[in-house]
Amino acid sequence: QVQLVESGGGLVQAGGSLTLSCAASGSILSINVMGWYRQAPGNQRELVAVFSSGGSTNYADSVKGRFTISRDNAKNTVYLRMNSLKPEDTAVYYCNADLISGAHFPPRQDLYWGQGTQVTVSS
After folding, report:
1. pLDDT band for position 78 (cuts 50, 70, 90)
2. 3-class secondary structure for the chain?
3. What is the distance between the alpha carbons of residues 49 and 22, in angstroms, rounded to a whole number?
4. Please, which pLDDT band fits residue 103 given cuts at 50, 70 and 90?
5. What is the pLDDT of residues 4-34, one digit of tens each?
6. Contact 24, 99 (CB under 8 A)
7. Cα–Cα distance for residue pair 89/26, rounded to 1 Å
8. Contact indicator for 48, 61 with CB cutoff of 8 Å
9. How many CB atoms are closer than 10 A to CB 46?
10. Are the CB atoms for 79 and 70 separated by under 8 Å?
């Protein structure tokens, strides 16, 4: 089984910073895409930042220049450093990975989600 476990959410004042972590564990052969989405109450889930299969990064316009995604391939972990946080960044942040798992035969490519971590930015 593959699991994505997020950590690092919390309550922060506007202008503050937080770093989220997401570790993928289990029978993982390769990770194609891994990154972060968020969902605020009443809104659809939206992309925040991801690493594509080629290693390039893609950010939502609303977070460019404030958020930075990074990764540790050896640990199958991605991080999201969030600076200059705004109240509109308040949401549940979800880790997402498109990966090939060796738990099946033949190996299978699937999309996985973490359980989500709450980020609340007070004004």
Report:
1. very high
2. CCEEEEECCEEEECCCCEEEEEEEECCEEEEEEEEEEEECCCCCCEEEEEECCCCCEEECHHHCCCEEEEEEHHHCEEEEEECCCCHHHCEEEEEEEEEEECCCCCCEEEEEECCCEEEEEEC
3. 13
4. confident
5. 999 999 999 999 999 999 999 999 999 999 9
6. yes
7. 31
8. no
9. 12
10. yes
Give the Cα separation of 70 and 77 in Å (integer): 9
- Beta carbons of 58 and 49 less than 8 angstroms apart: yes
Q: How far apart are CA 98 and CA 42, in angstroms?
A: 26
Whole-angstrom CA distances from 14 to 64, 88, 119, 120 are 17, 10, 12, 9
